[in-house]
Amino acid sequence: MKFDGPEGGPLLILAHGAGAPMDSDFMNRMTALLNEQGIRIGRFEFPYMAERRTSGKKRPPDRAPRLLAHFREVLDQVESPVFIGGKSMGGRMATMLATEVPVKGVCVLGYPFHAPGKETPRIDHFADLQCPVLICQGERDPMGQRAEVEGYDLGQAVELHWLGDGNHDLAPRKASGLSAEQNWLSAAQAIGDFIRRAVSQHTTAK
Fold first, then answer.
1. Model pTM greater than 0.70?
2. Which of 166, 165, 60, 190 is nearest to 110 (CA)?
3. pLDDT by residue for the chain (206 residues), tens digit each?
4. How far, in Å, CA of 22 to CA of 171, rounded?
5. Disulfide engineering: 62 pairs with which of 66, 96, 130, 185, CB 3.0-4.6 Å?
6. Which domains does the chain have, with CATH numbers?
7. DSSP 126
8. Which stretches of 60-179 are DSSP H helices?
Protein backbone atom coordinates (compact mmCIF):
# COMPACT_ATOMS: atom_id res chain seq x y z
CA MET A 1 0.00 0.00 0.00
CA LYS A 2 1.17 3.52 -0.79
CA PHE A 3 0.64 6.32 1.72
CA ASP A 4 0.67 10.04 1.00
CA GLY A 5 -0.04 13.09 3.12
CA PRO A 6 0.29 14.19 6.74
CA GLU A 7 1.06 11.35 9.13
CA GLY A 8 -1.16 12.86 11.79
CA GLY A 9 -4.15 13.35 9.51
CA PRO A 10 -7.24 11.13 9.36
CA LEU A 11 -6.62 8.13 7.11
CA LEU A 12 -8.71 7.49 3.98
CA ILE A 13 -8.06 4.19 2.20
CA LEU A 14 -8.85 4.94 -1.44
CA ALA A 15 -9.50 2.20 -4.02
CA HIS A 16 -9.08 2.68 -7.78
CA GLY A 17 -11.74 2.27 -10.46
CA ALA A 18 -12.26 -0.68 -12.78
CA GLY A 19 -10.05 0.44 -15.65
CA ALA A 20 -7.24 2.57 -14.21
CA PRO A 21 -4.54 1.90 -11.58
CA MET A 22 -4.03 3.55 -8.21
CA ASP A 23 -1.58 6.04 -9.73
CA SER A 24 -3.70 7.21 -12.67
CA ASP A 25 -3.70 10.95 -13.34
CA PHE A 26 -7.10 11.25 -11.65
CA MET A 27 -6.06 9.30 -8.55
CA ASN A 28 -2.78 11.20 -8.28
CA ARG A 29 -4.49 14.59 -8.51
CA MET A 30 -7.27 13.73 -6.08
CA THR A 31 -4.71 12.36 -3.64
CA ALA A 32 -2.74 15.62 -3.80
CA LEU A 33 -5.88 17.72 -3.30
CA LEU A 34 -7.02 15.56 -0.38
CA ASN A 35 -3.55 15.80 1.18
CA GLU A 36 -3.98 19.59 1.05
CA GLN A 37 -7.15 19.09 3.08
CA GLY A 38 -5.05 17.44 5.78
CA ILE A 39 -6.14 13.92 4.90
CA ARG A 40 -3.69 11.04 4.70
CA ILE A 41 -4.39 8.76 1.74
CA GLY A 42 -3.62 5.06 1.50
CA ARG A 43 -3.81 3.56 -1.99
CA PHE A 44 -3.67 -0.06 -3.09
CA GLU A 45 -4.43 -2.18 -6.14
CA PHE A 46 -6.82 -5.07 -6.50
CA PRO A 47 -5.12 -8.31 -7.66
CA TYR A 48 -6.30 -8.07 -11.28
CA MET A 49 -4.82 -4.58 -11.62
CA ALA A 50 -1.56 -5.58 -9.94
CA GLU A 51 -1.31 -8.47 -12.42
CA ARG A 52 -1.84 -6.06 -15.31
CA ARG A 53 1.07 -3.98 -14.04
CA THR A 54 3.44 -6.97 -14.19
CA SER A 55 2.10 -8.75 -17.30
CA GLY A 56 1.04 -5.72 -19.33
CA LYS A 57 -2.15 -7.56 -20.29
CA LYS A 58 -5.51 -5.97 -19.60
CA ARG A 59 -8.09 -8.09 -17.87
CA PRO A 60 -11.50 -7.29 -16.41
CA PRO A 61 -12.00 -6.81 -12.67
CA ASP A 62 -12.57 -9.82 -10.48
CA ARG A 63 -16.06 -10.43 -9.17
CA ALA A 64 -17.16 -8.58 -6.04
CA PRO A 65 -16.43 -11.33 -3.48
CA ARG A 66 -12.74 -11.44 -4.41
CA LEU A 67 -12.49 -7.64 -4.56
CA LEU A 68 -14.09 -7.35 -1.13
CA ALA A 69 -11.84 -10.06 0.33
CA HIS A 70 -8.75 -8.14 -0.84
CA PHE A 71 -10.15 -4.85 0.48
CA ARG A 72 -10.57 -6.53 3.90
CA GLU A 73 -6.94 -7.72 3.77
CA VAL A 74 -5.87 -4.13 3.10
CA LEU A 75 -7.83 -2.88 6.11
CA ASP A 76 -6.15 -5.54 8.27
CA GLN A 77 -2.86 -3.71 7.61
CA VAL A 78 -3.97 -0.47 9.27
CA GLU A 79 -5.34 0.52 12.65
CA SER A 80 -9.11 0.29 12.39
CA PRO A 81 -11.56 1.91 12.05
CA VAL A 82 -10.59 4.27 9.24
CA PHE A 83 -12.34 6.07 6.40
CA ILE A 84 -12.60 4.11 3.15
CA GLY A 85 -13.66 5.00 -0.35
CA GLY A 86 -12.68 4.97 -3.96
CA LYS A 87 -13.21 5.90 -7.57
CA SER A 88 -16.26 4.34 -9.24
CA MET A 89 -15.97 0.54 -8.76
CA GLY A 90 -13.59 1.06 -5.85
CA GLY A 91 -16.13 3.34 -4.22
CA ARG A 92 -18.91 0.83 -4.76
CA MET A 93 -16.79 -1.89 -3.11
CA ALA A 94 -16.16 0.49 -0.22
CA THR A 95 -19.90 0.99 0.35
CA MET A 96 -20.45 -2.77 0.25
CA LEU A 97 -17.60 -3.35 2.69
CA ALA A 98 -19.04 -0.72 5.02
CA THR A 99 -22.10 -2.93 5.54
CA GLU A 100 -19.83 -5.67 6.93
CA VAL A 101 -16.93 -4.05 8.81
CA PRO A 102 -16.75 -1.00 11.10
CA VAL A 103 -15.44 2.11 9.34
CA LYS A 104 -15.70 5.80 10.21
CA GLY A 105 -17.22 6.76 6.88
CA VAL A 106 -17.13 6.21 3.13
CA CYS A 107 -16.10 8.71 0.42
CA VAL A 108 -16.92 7.93 -3.20
CA LEU A 109 -15.69 9.69 -6.34
CA GLY A 110 -18.25 8.94 -9.07
CA TYR A 111 -20.54 6.15 -7.88
CA PRO A 112 -21.57 3.68 -10.63
CA PHE A 113 -25.27 3.75 -9.78
CA HIS A 114 -25.95 1.50 -12.76
CA ALA A 115 -23.97 -0.14 -15.55
CA PRO A 116 -23.63 1.91 -18.76
CA GLY A 117 -26.81 1.61 -20.77
CA LYS A 118 -28.62 -0.20 -17.96
CA GLU A 119 -31.28 1.08 -15.58
CA THR A 120 -31.16 -1.25 -12.57
CA PRO A 121 -29.60 0.72 -9.69
CA ARG A 122 -26.84 -0.82 -7.56
CA ILE A 123 -28.10 0.51 -4.25
CA ASP A 124 -29.86 -2.36 -2.46
CA HIS A 125 -27.06 -2.61 0.10
CA PHE A 126 -27.35 1.07 1.04
CA ALA A 127 -30.14 0.12 3.48
CA ASP A 128 -27.54 -1.80 5.54
CA LEU A 129 -24.98 0.99 5.84
CA GLN A 130 -23.91 1.67 9.41
CA CYS A 131 -21.81 4.78 8.77
CA PRO A 132 -22.11 8.07 6.88
CA VAL A 133 -21.38 8.05 3.14
CA LEU A 134 -20.45 10.96 0.89
CA ILE A 135 -20.79 10.53 -2.86
CA CYS A 136 -19.22 13.17 -5.10
CA GLN A 137 -21.03 12.80 -8.41
CA GLY A 138 -20.87 14.54 -11.77
CA GLU A 139 -24.23 15.94 -12.83
CA ARG A 140 -24.05 14.24 -16.23
CA ASP A 141 -22.35 11.02 -15.14
CA PRO A 142 -23.58 8.32 -17.55
CA MET A 143 -23.62 5.86 -14.64
CA GLY A 144 -25.86 8.10 -12.58
CA GLN A 145 -27.01 11.50 -13.78
CA ARG A 146 -28.45 13.98 -11.33
CA ALA A 147 -32.01 13.79 -12.67
CA GLU A 148 -32.20 10.02 -12.17
CA VAL A 149 -30.20 9.73 -8.96
CA GLU A 150 -32.36 12.30 -7.21
CA GLY A 151 -35.27 9.92 -7.82
CA TYR A 152 -33.58 7.09 -5.88
CA ASP A 153 -34.19 6.34 -2.21
CA LEU A 154 -30.61 6.32 -0.95
CA GLY A 155 -31.45 6.28 2.75
CA GLN A 156 -30.37 8.48 5.62
CA ALA A 157 -26.68 7.53 5.56
CA VAL A 158 -25.91 8.85 2.06
CA GLU A 159 -25.01 12.47 1.29
CA LEU A 160 -24.55 13.68 -2.30
CA HIS A 161 -22.19 16.42 -3.46
CA TRP A 162 -22.89 17.37 -7.08
CA LEU A 163 -20.18 18.59 -9.47
CA GLY A 164 -21.45 20.99 -12.12
CA ASP A 165 -21.67 19.40 -15.59
CA GLY A 166 -19.27 16.69 -14.43
CA ASN A 167 -18.82 13.33 -16.19
CA HIS A 168 -17.76 10.06 -14.54
CA ASP A 169 -14.35 11.62 -13.82
CA LEU A 170 -16.18 14.67 -12.41
CA ALA A 171 -14.83 16.76 -15.32
CA PRO A 172 -17.14 19.30 -17.05
CA ARG A 173 -17.32 20.36 -20.67
CA LYS A 174 -15.48 23.55 -21.63
CA ALA A 175 -18.78 25.20 -22.59
CA SER A 176 -19.92 24.94 -18.97
CA GLY A 177 -17.45 27.63 -17.90
CA LEU A 178 -16.05 25.23 -15.29
CA SER A 179 -12.81 23.25 -15.31
CA ALA A 180 -11.90 19.76 -14.17
CA GLU A 181 -9.57 21.27 -11.60
CA GLN A 182 -12.40 23.34 -10.11
CA ASN A 183 -14.65 20.28 -9.82
CA TRP A 184 -11.88 18.12 -8.36
CA LEU A 185 -11.06 20.80 -5.81
CA SER A 186 -14.75 21.06 -4.91
CA ALA A 187 -14.88 17.30 -4.40
CA ALA A 188 -11.73 17.34 -2.25
CA GLN A 189 -13.11 20.16 -0.11
CA ALA A 190 -16.41 18.32 0.33
CA ILE A 191 -14.57 15.18 1.42
CA GLY A 192 -12.40 17.21 3.77
CA ASP A 193 -15.48 18.77 5.38
CA PHE A 194 -17.20 15.37 5.57
CA ILE A 195 -14.24 13.72 7.29
CA ARG A 196 -13.74 16.60 9.72
CA ARG A 197 -17.42 16.43 10.70
CA ALA A 198 -17.22 12.68 11.23
CA VAL A 199 -14.03 12.98 13.31
CA SER A 200 -15.61 15.77 15.40
CA GLN A 201 -18.76 13.75 16.03
CA HIS A 202 -16.69 10.69 16.97
CA THR A 203 -14.61 12.77 19.40
CA THR A 204 -17.71 14.36 20.95
CA ALA A 205 -19.35 10.97 21.39
CA LYS A 206 -16.43 9.65 23.47
1. yes
2. 166
3. 999 999 989 999 999 999 999 999 999 999 999 999 999 999 999 999 999 888 888 888 999 999 999 999 999 999 878 999 999 999 999 999 999 999 999 999 999 999 888 888 999 999 999 899 999 999 999 999 999 999 999 999 999 999 999 999 999 999 999 999 999 999 999 999 999 999 988 666 55
4. 18
5. 66
6. 2-205 (3.40.50.1820)
7. G
8. 64-75, 89-97, 146-149
